[in-house]
Input
Amino acid sequence: MTQFDLPLDRLRTYRSESVEPEDFDAFWAKTLGEARTHALDARFEAVPTGLSTVETFDVTFAGFDGQPVKGWFVLPAGASQPLPVVVEFLGYGGGRGLPHTHLLWASAGFAHFVMDTRGQGSGWATGDTPDPVGSAPSFPGFMTRGVEDPDTYYYRRLFTDAVRAVEAARSHPLVDASRTAVTGVSQGGGITLAVAGLVRDLVAVAADVPFLCDFPRATTVTDRPPYREIGNYLKTHRGRVRRVQDTLSYFDGVHFAARASAPALFSTALEDLTCPPSTVFAAFNAYAGDEKAIEVYDFNDHEGGGTFQQAAQLRWLPGKLRG
Output
């Protein structure tokens, strides 16, 4: 693989052609307002893990339409005072997995809330949250489920779950709600940007190789899944391009980024065919916060910075959460 996208100097000024819907804010205010008519009902049940440095809780809370969503909540062992919290969202196809795999942020001294991903969790990590909402015909995967109408699109449910996950994390007595950060890789990075645009009082946003950004370019510049699911759908459903594009515009990370203000750390990889660097820079360049930075990994594909990016986050995030 070699670098295939725009040169780095052009990436730094690139702007998406995604058209923001006139009722974007109204759509999301209505969606979240409806979700909040249901009691959050966040429940935390301690689970044994065999680990001595952390305490882990099995979480259930009410997400979209009051439907139950699972998660893990991890605390440093012996925590007795409210801590800053890192809320994490997961990559495409994965679920919350096993509790002992989530140690990084509690080991750094923070509370850590990991949201399960409805309907996913059979790709690279197991999940425990079904998606009980039906769908019109869709290409296998999640990108085209309900894609012809914003009200029925899969990511309306998932982004709503994510906002409610922040509210659930903040409801725990050992969380300092005023010091909340959100993070995620790939799909998790895209969800992170959505939450950053919908929850205005975060203290930090860390979005790595984010997915779900700049749909007009992403769906035409790469033929790698998951974006290719949309192309395959339109290959079969000829003549529905405008309708699908209109739906996707309500879920484009570029538009959420334009509403976000918390300090942000992005990452991208210049050989990434899954989330092409131009789509990541589209969100980064649109990001409205005054304090933002992006780590660029020249010779990496969708693995991005991996543990090197985690190290960068460990240098950056504590100052935001403890500041």
About this structure: The chain has a mean pLDDT of 97. Residues 154-171 form the longest helix (18 residues). The CA atoms of residues 267 and 309 lie 8 Å apart. The first strand starts at residue 43 and ends at 47.
